[in-house]
């Protein structure tokens, strides 16, 4: 059990707390490096899921320029063309900012719908940029989109738990 901080106790060092969202996005992107044997590739883009999870649950946790370096790292480890995640992730965060300006209040279902659109947008455009049109990957891509959308509540739960730990310290 943690002791509550008294009114005259020193403020704990919070310098590491601001890096937790970025570190979790980097770890999510690095999960694609894990050696897996799969006959049907449906590994979701965990870096994108973590980025959306942090942005939708705690908007002030990531700066508006954060998708650029995080997307660059994701492009390096995922094998996508360089700049792919950088552009699409930035466009997704701009879209979410535009929705935040228009909508006064969002609940979990609206966040899930916004994240579903962002996931489908990034994966579909990434497919058209990275592979030829004649490639027959549409079934695997639709399954990957469905798995990613269904995993989003788990990612939101992870982000919420990590942000609650941050506030406890």
Automatic annotation (TrEMBL):
Transmembrane segments: 20-43, 82-100, 112-130, 142-163
Membrane topology: Multi-pass membrane protein
Keywords linked to the UniProt accession: Cell membrane, Cell shape, Membrane, Transmembrane, Transmembrane helix
Biological process, per Gene Ontology: regulation of cell shape
Entry's Gene Ontology cellular component terms: plasma membrane
Recorded superkingdom: Bacteria
Stated family: Belongs to the MreD family.
Protein name (record): Rod shape-determining protein MreD
Cleavable signal peptide: none
NCBIfam families documented for this protein: shape_MreD
Chief subcellular location: membrane
InterPro entries according to UniProt: Cell_shape_determining_MreD
Upper taxonomic lineage: Bacteria, Pseudomonadati, Pseudomonadota, Alphaproteobacteria, Sphingomonadales
